[in-house]
Design goal:
Layout lengths: L3 E2 L4 E4 L5 H7 L3 H6 L7 H16 L4 E7 L2 E9 L10 E8 L8 H17 L3 E7 L3 H9 L3 E12 L2 E11 L1
């Protein structure tokens, strides 16, 4: 089992018993606005976690839970891992932090650690992260973690009757 310890938190694989706080962390208006979908029920949250656990077993990704004082506080994931030759050097990063822990630098520190882990473990050359143009906090996390803004994908997604623009950030080795 992969565990990364810091003085402020522990990063460890997500577990089914994280489901309640995982669900809760995606129910505020900022999370619902920033993600294309969020779980609507605890059952949906459990299903999402099961999918994340399956991705780890199948080597398509890894989701680290951020644990503070023995409680789930959020996650950082590496996904889109593939063995396909033309893409196996790349992956994407995603994250979500419980509202109680936002604005404290925890996500930035966790993203830095997971980025370094992923570059070494998977021998990656590029990790990208996407966020909506209105999500200044998420963009700041990526910027502070050393990612560079590569561009904006205009009208990239469609949600609730509106087109959304996405920023694409990347860290390259």
């Amino acid at each position: 089992m992969i565990v990364i310890k810091t003085k402020d938190f522990i990063l460890r694989p997500i577990r089914m018993n994280d489901a309640e706080l995982y669900f809760e962390s995606q129910q505020d208006k900022y999370a619902r606005k920033g993600f294309m979908t969020t779980p609507k029920t605890l059952s949906e949250a459990k299903s999402e976690i099961q999918g994340r656990i399956k991705a780890l077993k199948e080597k398509h990704g890894i989701t680290f839970a951020i644990e503070i004082d023995k409680k789930y506080a959020g996650y950082v994931e590496i996904h889109e891992l593939t063995e396909r030759e033309r893409y196996r050097h790349t992956a994407q990063i995603g994250y979500c932090i419980h509202p109680k822990y936002r604005g404290k630098g925890i996500t930035t520190k966790a993203v830095k650690l997971v980025t370094e882990y992923a570059f070494k473990r998977y021998k990656l050359k590029r990790i990208s992260g996407w966020c909506r143009t209105f999500n200044k906090a998420s963009a700041r996390v990526l910027e502070k973690a050393g990612y560079k803004l590569e561009g904006i994908l205009r009208k990239n997604k469609f949600k609730d009757g509106k087109y959304l623009d996405d920023m694409v950030w990347a860290k390259v080795r």
